[in-house]
Amino acid sequence: MTLLDVIALLDATIRTSTPLVLAALAGLFAERAGLVDIGLEGKMLAAAFASAAMAAGTGSAWAGLGMGVVVSVVLALLHGYASITHRGNQVVSGLAINILASGLTVTLGIAWYQRGGQTPPLEGDARFQQIVLPLADTLREVPVIGPIWSELISGHSVLVYAAFLAVPLTAWIVYRTRFGLRLRAVGENPAAVDTAGISVTALRYQAMVLTGVLCGLAGTYLSVAQNASFGRDMTAGKGYLALAALIFAKWKPWPVMLTCLLFGLLDALEARLQGTIIPGFGEVPVQLIQALPYILTVVLLAGFIGRATAPKASGVPYVKER
Q1: At 76, which CATH number?
Q2: What domain range is 216 assigned to?
Q3: How far is C-alpha 26 from the chain's CA centre?
Q4: CB–CB of 32/183 below 8 Å?
Q5: Is the pLDDT of residue 25 over 90?
Q6: Helix (H, G, I), strand (E, B) or coil at 261
Q7: What pLDDT sits at residue 47?
């Protein structure tokens, strides 16, 4: 494998891991606040449809991004209303959002566009285009550094750069700000936070808004940046993979990014491993290659990651003592 092959593989890894990074960070804010959110998948899917539909109608990718974020935040607040205000079962609420998004996006897609649930193809300003960084063309012929800068670092959409900039930003918010301190405290001991005169409900709703924004970015990336339209169930379990990455990374931003990159690498290997022939075994089945990220998820979560302790109040509705 040549240097260019390695760079191409890493470039594909960055692209495929971007929605996982955003969704996993979304889950981090929710679970640090003590809320289990398996509805990441549904919020991403709804945002992907809403952003593609808006971008197709207006011809603006930024309008699509705005709509995707709004729809995702609304679903996040719906989950918060069920699990925070009414103290409902958080797993059931998240699952309901996934089912709602899966059915509603296809139904609206068929009703509006008659394309089997797909939206019209996006072109020009209706898609987020690749950004060419300074000196990318100038350095292209320079050995090693040139291909890395021009092919691996340059040439991504704004949402890719936003996803990886969100990692240090999330780490700073969670570990270096008053809001982050309160967020972690409400996920560990909400009664102590309440005793200090801080609203547990308000903090958890703020966490859900952040979760919605990040899921909106992830969903928009799938349909308006990585692809050129919305496709039926196009998230394909990425929300669940992001949740698995979050658990594997023990709810910490930087390990979350590295885990998502690992999952993205396996996803990027799919196209390159198809048709591979192993002596004495034959051609590797395509289905096995496609299942690699999910197989790795099961293996990692089956005990190879050590003890992963969630925030103590995760999944437990808070009842204010009177």
Answers
A1: 1.10.3470.10
A2: 3-128+149-304
A3: 7
A4: yes
A5: yes
A6: helix
A7: 96
